[in-house]
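Model the whole thing, not chain by chain.
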Amino acid sequence: MIGVLQYVAKRVGLYLVVLFIGLTITFFLPRLMPTNPIDGYIGQIQARASGALTAEAIASLRENLEVLYGLKGDLFTQYVSYLERVVLRFDFGPSFSFYPQPVSQIIFGAVPYTLGLLLCSTTIAWILGNLVGLVAGYFHTKRAASVLEIVGILLYPIPYYILAVTVILMLSYVIPIFPLSPSFPVGEMTPQKFGMIIYNSLLPAITLILAGFGWNILSMKALAVSTTEEPYVTYARLKGTSNGTRMLRYVFRNAMLPQVTALALSLGTIFNGALLTEMLFSYPGVGLIMRTAASSGDYNVLYGAITISIIAVATAGLIIDLIYPLIDPRIRHK
Amino acid sequence: MSASTATAPEAATSTPTAARRRDALLWLLNPRLAIGLAIILIMGVGSFVLPLFNTVDPSVQATYLKNLPMSFEHPLGTNAIGQDIFWFLVFAVRNSLTLGILVGLGVTVIATTIGLSAGYIGGNFERVVMLFVDSFITIPLLPILIILGAVIRGNSNFLTVGVIIMIFGWAWGARTVRSMALTLREREFINMAKFSGANTFDVLLREVFPYVTSYMLVAFINTVLFAINTEATLAVIGLSKVEVPTLGSIIFWALNYNALFTGNYVWIVAPIIATVALFLGLFLTSTGFNQAFASKRGVA
């Protein structure tokens, strides 16, 4: 029991340190860049006012902006106040493009969309890919099984954006089943609106499933092949179990474990993957917010979105490490 | 080979060295690797040699008439901004490959150095290093690239993107190499070397390094793939230097000018085919090498 507690405490400590280093790096990196976001923003305002701003007006504007962006004082003061705001209050200040709406509110509004789409599609891709991979790996001596593997080989190396563009081409241009520019209603949720959101999410979901499918086939196939060669599978065969029982109870249960880790890790990185999907399909999640924030120089929002994704990845890693011993009895607490 | 020399020494002396060399290379050959290498060779050599015969910078707009169909003069026609699609594509493949190879080299060197030293030296050094590795793994690359892209917009060279990918891309490799080094640390031949007086650096270089080279080759190819993909992703969403021809920027321009709706299918289909072919080539080469090394070790 004490061993377990020690393991958990160590792992949680590691989690906190990793989060801290991650936040620190994201804080310092843009500040090491030669350009200053405030200069750019003042330039924009200057251009809009066609140069009519006085020097005092600019100075006071700069002061206000520095407070808003958390850029006041020297680097160390900025860093301390950044950590304090983010860690204690999860406060990233106001958004610039949607002033004075706070960043946390914008992000929390988008998180359900991202989570809903990516959790569903990642899980479906995992289940489908593993089943196909299992069959391909278990019957790897048969010719028909290599056809299944070829599906994986052809799907896996296609870059995601190309897959997405192709799917859009096929399903909303050549065969117009889905709308070219999906619309997502805002405000109160009604059954009709919900249906519309689901309908508009189908196209990005299909693309994500196709993209994740190939990798899962290939890795499951490799694992299933090596597990099929294990002595206990041969023993089960000599005992007279059927092919189906052997495949599911003996091979799948043991080959599944590394795949569970992979699933957890890919769930952690969904905010990373969300970015491209949401941009290409104009899907109103965290990724789209990141993209608009990047192009309009809304740094507070960008920081918020990156922090959310760092927390997601680190937390997913923590959860796998904590539950892994529960699903794999071969692993011992150290 | 050694078995035949032991049983029939006179036959071994008559065996020409050429045959031995062919034998040494034979284990490498499997259909996957052959197809993959062929694709990469054709695309690589083509994209590096062809530009020597071209006098026009393909990224300059309005060089030719707009939207010309395929012809002898313009093998893939021209696009809506008056560029020759074929030449743009050739330069794109060359630039993307260059970027990928540079990033691949950088990442492989960093990951191997850090992973090997952490796994082999161990102790507190390993703990601190692995903490950094874990932190780097949690930092999502794409958002970071987007932030940096927004901050340094306009001033960035397209190779800057490569440097950033390198900085954030070494962590996974370092983790894998370290776990290999961990198992190697306990092997007999390493102890043997240590007891015979080799210092840490010698052991790493002479004993451990040859052991991980086959893995590194595969990891290198995968990193090339990853780097090309990441740069192209950024270009497709317009956050890389889109004036420079890369596999992503040609798709960016085609999407931007609605190539589909104006009926210029070649503009969008050609880069897609080229990218998929290149990726398939790299992927087949990497899995082909994997298979070859596995069969050499007698695993499969």
